[in-house]
């Protein structure tokens, strides 16, 4: 029983490890692989919360661990990625600007954790750090096609949008089988195309994370279908 309750935390730790590996790949100049690891972290992050609810393993420890993993994978890792791919040319100023992203992200996470507003189930106040980090990762993947000025504008906008009071619709109440499969197919195709055009060693974690994510969505789809039949 204890092992079952620890499964969501294992996915959260996997998310955190992807963030650490992403920083390492970025430092070694393998920027596409670093960005892909952030996307893998997004897969794992989308699974841990749902698994916790499915297994009835929600805990205060899991929520705190999730925030710590998010700040590394979707805050620190993307900021390093942007620095190494573009801001490095500004030397000290570049690394200082890149460091603002995890600062804004940490504030946004802390504000969310202490929020007691039940309406947060239907919308987020400010852009979630997961989405912001994922956007920066995608911009890096297609860095050859995206002008640097656009990356700079998006980076700056995301910093302020994370701590803004803008209401962003939450997908938590949307049935996973309805939209999750479409998102997974799109993400899988994108990763495959990126893999074909990538250089250097490819992070083999994708071969573990993607099948797990697809299997998870398939299980949710079958479970949701059976529930409808029962009703």
UniProtKB/TrEMBL annotation:
It is found in: Endomembrane system. Its EC number is 2.7.8.8. InterPro entries: CDP-alcohol_PTase-I, CDP-diaglyc--ser_O-PTrfase, CDP-OH_P_trans, CDP-OH_PTrfase_TM_dom, CDP_ALCOHOL_P_TRANSF_CS. The chain crosses the membrane at residues 7-25, 92-109, 121-139, 145-164, 176-198, 204-222. One of its GO terms (biological process) is phospholipid biosynthetic process. PROSITE patterns: CDP_ALCOHOL_P_TRANSF (PS00379). It comes from the Bacteria. GO terms for cellular component: endomembrane system; membrane. Keywords: Lipid biosynthesis, Lipid metabolism, Membrane, Phospholipid biosynthesis, Phospholipid metabolism, Transferase, Transmembrane, Transmembrane helix. It catalyses: a CDP-1,2-diacyl-sn-glycerol + L-serine = a 1,2-diacyl-sn-glycero-3-phospho-L-serine + CMP + H(+). The keyword Zinc does not apply. Belongs to the CDP-alcohol phosphatidyltransferase class-I family. This is CDP-diacylglycerol--serine O-phosphatidyltransferase. It comes from Halalkalibacter krulwichiae.
